[in-house]
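Hey,
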Amino acid sequence: MKNDRNSFVFRLVITLFVILAINFFLPRIMPGDPFSTTSEDDSGDEVIIMTEEQRLYYMSYYGLDKPVHEQFLVYLKNLLKADLGRSIYYKMPVSDVIMLHLPWTMMIVFGSTVISTVAGVILGTFSAKNRKKGSDRLMMAGMIAFAEIPSFLLGLILLLAFSVHFRLFPLAGAITPFAHYSGPVEQLWDILYHAFLPVMTLSLAQLTGVYLLTRNTLITVTTKDYIRTARAKGLGEKTVWTRHALRNALLPVVTRAGFMIGIMMGGVVLVESVFSYPGIGMTLRSAVVGRDYPLIQGILLVIAVSILICNLLVDKIYSKLDPRVAI
């Protein structure tokens, strides 16, 4: 047991180091640097916004003129002090920028995870109960076809339909600008009102995976001996499905839910861009365009650590659902 724990800690340390290295070197692979900003005038000629002297000054100010390995060591040293650096674009600590935008993303990601998981389990159970019937075939075909739609395209469809055509939801943003709320309930309603379409986009994008996993797992579980034994004891079909079949089928679904958070943390960049939602994905996009190295590193680190934490929580929940699993 002690050796297993030591092995787990060792793998965790190696994983974190690899993540830190990728977070640091990946932005620097991109062409240009944060201060080599150019644009084009009407004739198509490049216009230098920053002089070479100014660029060199800021490169030195942010330590980007040092060799890459020295920058990496400084980065690791600062991380030990919980210092993510200072954003070049926002002119403020990276941690402050992340804390301004991360709550919006976490709200839509966790909301989408709950909705897609619950809806996928319900639809998957219905489909498994009606296996090989017309309703099962129709739902299966629809879900598979629906899964081929990219999340950003799905977001555009929902935006055009419910915001532009029917005018039921706002086009962009997370709250109504310059709104004066009579109380916290009204403010919460406004936040949920703006988050509805981004949440539904992410939920629908992940729904098919949960549906198929639940359906196929339930079909496999219902062929097991303990299901036949439960029926032989005279238990009702509702009890057999809920207390025996569904409980065991939920184990891979829980794992899938943890992985979905990681998938959505990556896909949220495009979805937030479609709805101009001020989350961490939209901030990461702006940081990449502006070559804001410290902010890119900070956001990627937060996303990676969030995924690791979610995986650990999934393992804990898995062990509660199935005590035979040793953590």
